[in-house]
Design brief:
This protein is an all-alpha fold. It is built from eleven helices and no strands. The radius of gyration is 34 Å and the shape is extended.
C-alpha cells in the first residue's frame, strides 16, 4: 500500500467499479490521486525499496533457518508476509550470476599449453642449431656443395642434406602466433568433425547428386554451420576454447531454468502416491531450494576467494562444514515439506540427487554443443 492520498470518489479509475475500501475488489488498483508531487514520488520510491528489502530479509531469515518452511507456507496460502518466490528467484539469480561472472572469467577455465610449447620450440630450435653447428664443424663441404664424411675414403659422396627433410617440432593451430617468425608451417584445428572444408566444396558435391539423395534442410544447415565454425577457428584453438567457455558459462542461467521443471517431474514421480502435492507444488519447493542455493554459493564462493587471495588454509575447514550443512539442509527441507519418515526421505533424497546428477551432465553436454553451433 502506498502513502498517497486516497480519492474522495469511491469509484475505480481503472475499471469504473464502485469501491468499498481503498482497493478495488475487481482489479486490485489502489484508489489514490492520479497526480502526485515530486516529494510524493520520491517518498513512494524509497518506500518501495525499503518494503522490498524488509520482506527480502525476513523471507531470507526463514529460508535459511527453517528448511522447507516457506514452500509449505506457500502451499497453505500464507503468502502476504513473505516476498514472492518468483521475484526472489529472479533477484537472487541475477545477483549471483553478476558476482559469479565477475569472479570467474572464461580464461580461467581454458587450458592452454602455449607457454610450455614456446619453451619446447625454443629448446628444440636451440638444440637444432647446436647440432647443425657441431655437424658442420666436422663435415667438410666441397665446391659442389656436397657434404663429405670424414674418414679414410674422403672421396665417398653422400646425398646433399635437403632443407625440406628437416623435421620440425609439431604444433597446434592455436600456437601459430607464438612461434618463431621463420616457422612457416601452418597447422589446422578441427572443431567439429566434417568431411567438407568449404561451402563451395559441399555445394558442388550436393549438386552432383540426384535430387532425391541430397541433404535435407536441417542436415544442410548443420553441415554449413560445421564448416563455418571449423573455418573460423581452424588457426586459433585457444580462441575457440575461450569463446566456447564464455558462451557456455553465460548459458548457466538458462540451463538452471530448464532443469527446474525436469527436477519437478522427478519429485512428482517420487511422490506420485501423495495426491495432495500437485506438480506446481514440487516446482515451488525447488524454487525455494534454488534461491537458498544461490545465497549459499554466494557465501561459499566469497570464502573461497578470500582463502585464495590471502593464501590462508583454515577457511577450507569452513568450506567443508558448509558443504555438509548444505547437503543436510536439502535433505531436511525435503523431510519437512513432504512430511515422510526420515529413512524413506533419505532414500528418495539419494535417488533424486542421482537423477539430477545424470540430468545435469546431459544438459551440460547439450548446452555446450548448442554453444559451439552458435559461435
Amino acid at each position: 500500500m502506498s502513502h498517497a492520498k486516497e480519492r474522495d470518489e469511491k469509484i475505480c479509475l481503472n475499471c469504473n467499479t464502485p469501491l468499498y475500501g481503498r482497493f478495488c475488489h475487481r482489479c486490485g488498483q489502489e484508489n489514490t490521486e492520479p497526480r502526485t508531487s515530486v516529494w510524493g514520488l520520491i517518498t513512494h520510491f524509497f518506500y518501495d525499496i525499503t518494503h522490498f528489502d524488509g520482506k527480502f530479509f525476513s523471507t531470507t531469515k526463514y529460508l535459511v533457518t527453517r528448511p522447507g518452511f516457506l514452500p509449505k507456507e506457500y502451499m497453505r496460502g500464507r503468502r502476504a508476509a513473505y516476498l514472492n518466490p518468483i521475484r526472489m528467484y529472479i533477484f537472487t539469480s541475477a545477483f549471483f550470476f553478476l558476482i559469479f561472472f565477475s569472479l570467474y572469467s572464461s580464461e580461467k577455465f581454458v587450458f592452454t599449453q602455449s607457454n610450455t610449447y614456446k619453451t619446447y620450440v625454443a629448446d628444440s630450435t636451440k638444440k637444432d642449431k647446436d647440432d647443425t653447428a657441431a655437424t658442420l664443424a666436422v663435415v667438410p663441404v666441397d665446391s659442389a656443395g656436397v657434404y663429405r664424411y670424414p674418414g679414410p675414403d674422403t672421396a665417398q659422396k653422400v646425398q646433399p642434406l635437403r632443407k625440406d627433410t628437416v623435421k620440425r617440432p609439431h604444433r597446434t593451430a592455436g600456437q601459430d602466433s607464438e612461434i618463431a617468425d621463420d616457422d612457416t608451417t601452418e597447422g589446422t584445428f578441427t572443431v567439429i568433425s566434417c568431411k567438407y572444408s568449404t561451402k563451395e566444396e559441399y555445394d558442388s558435391v550436393q549438386h552432383a547428386l540426384p535430387a532425391g539423395e541430397r541433404d535435407g534442410w536441417l542436415t544442410r544447415k548443420l553441415t554449413l554451420r560445421k564448416i563455418a565454425v571449423n573455418n573460423k577457428y581452424r588457426h586459433s584453438q585457444k580462441q575457440f576454447w575461450s569463446d566456447a567457455m564464455s558462451g557456455f558459462m553465460h548459458s548457466f542461467p538458462y540451463l538452471l531454468f530448464v532443469s527446474l521443471p525436469l527436477y519437478a517431474l522427478y519429485l512428482k514421480l517420487l511422490y506420485i502416491r501423495r495426491k495432495k502435492f500437485y506438480y506446481v507444488d514440487h516446482g515451488m519447493f525447488l524454487i525455494y531450494l534454488y534461491i537458498f542455493t544461490f545465497l549459499f554459493l554466494l557465501v561459499f564462493l566469497g570464502i573461497t576467494e578470500i582463502r585464495q587471495q590471502l593464501s590462508w588454509t583454515w577457511p577450507a575447514i569452513i568450506e567443508g562444514i558448509m558443504l555438509i550443512w548444505g547437503i543436510y539442509y536439502a535433505w531436511r527441507a525435503m523431510y519437512i515439506f513432504y512430511d515422510q519418515g526420515r529413512l524413506k526421505t533419505l532414500v528418495k533424497f539419494i535417488l533424486f540427487n542421482f537423477l539430477c546428477g545424470v540430468s545435469i551432465i546431459i544438459l551440460f553436454l547439450v548446452f555446450f554443443l548448442l554453444t559451439i553451433f552458435r559461435l
